[in-house]
Amino acid sequence: MTISYEVTPPVVAVKDVDLTLYRGEILGLAGESGCGKTTLAYGMNRLLKPPALLRSGEVTLHEKDGDIDVVALKGDELRRFRWDKVSMVFQGAMNALNPVISVKAQLFDVFSTHRPEMSRSEKRAVSEELLELVGVDKNRLTSYAHELSGGMRQRVMIAMALALRPQVMIMDEPTTALDVVVQREILREIMRLREQFNFAVIFITHDLPMLLEISDRIAIMKDGAIVEVNTAHNIYSAPQHEYTKQLLSSFPSLLGERGGFVRTGAGGGSDES
Ligand SMILES: Nc1ncnc2c1ncn2[C@@H]1O[C@H](COP(=O)(O)OP(=O)(O)OP(=O)(O)O)[C@@H](O)[C@H]1O
Ligand SMILES: [Mg+2]
């Protein structure tokens, strides 16, 4: 996939990237600011807006009953695909909740668009269940964004991304703006939900040590290209690319005893998704 921003002069933000996400796996995507992580994620989910242009490439979702050619989707098909099959927790999502409508109205919106057959009471029951799944009290359904802490807002965004039980969740720096303790709690929550619902995750962050803990595989991106993809273990113990080595050595905590990191909750996937 190649994506450019048609400004003057044009910026080629994603250069000939080829990436496979396996069913149920956690794929970490790391790289410096501006290397094209968000642009790639938007490209996969057909969220690019002008001046961004998908210059070439294909995106295929392999489903049990056939392949979906994501680039060819239009109108209703595309709307259904976006939240039903692949959902996204946006970068800065903590501030992405609509400030003037309640959490309930925002969750109900997702269901009204994608599950028009659901009754109000069903929507309510499922919304309450979703909040509890992400560790937010169901009484918070009637709250507005400003009444919630940053961590709670982020949990609500995750609940929304989970609402339709997608196969793939793209999380673009979902915990970056949170303090370390809340980050950990939310990460644990994401890992638990993934075990429970078995969706695949593309987890985007600058935080390579965190990716080493949670990912099955890690892709390292630099200047719009993926320079290395490998299992988390190999990225850590046998990095191939110079940039990967630099990235690893830029985290002081990794300079201690090697091989000592703890991986949690990451199961291996095998089928392509
Ligand atoms: N709307 C835009 N117009 C022009 N160039 C853009 C636009 N959005 C992004 N870019 C450029 O595309 C490149 C990739 O940006 P992108 O936001 O995908 O990077 P990123 O890896 O997600 O960075 P970060 O870690 O800071 O979120 C950068 O060079 C950026 O300046
Ligand atoms: Mg980004």
What does this structure look like?
- By secondary structure, the protein is an alpha/beta fold.
- It has a domain at 2-94 and 167-255: Rossmann fold (3-Layer(aba) Sandwich).
- The protein has 9 helices and 11 strands.
- The chain has helices at 37-44, 75-85, 103-114, 120-133, 150-162, 180-197, 208-214, 232-237, 242-249, and strands spanning 2-5, 11-14, 26-31, 52-56, 60-63, 66-69, 86-89, 168-172, 200-205, 217-222, 225-231.
- The strands form 3 sheets. It has a 6-stranded mixed sheet with strand order 7-8-9-3-10-11, with helices on both faces.
- A hairpin with a 5-residue loop joins strand 1 (2-5) and strand 2.
- Helix 4 packs across helix 5 (150-162) and helix 5 (150-162) runs parallel beside helix 6 (180-197).
- The longest helix has 18 residues, at 180-197.
- The chain is globular and about 55 Å long.
- 33% of the residues are buried.
- Residues 259-273 have low confidence and may be disordered.
- Bound molecules: adenosine-5'-triphosphate and magnesium ion (MG).
- Residues 5, 7, 11, 13, 31, 33-39, 51, 91 line the site of adenosine-5'-triphosphate.
- InterPro entries: AAA+_ATPase, ABC_transporter-like_ATP-bd, ABC_transporter-like_CS, P-loop_NTPase.
- This is ABC transporter ATP-binding protein.
- GO terms for molecular function: ATP binding; ATP hydrolysis activity.
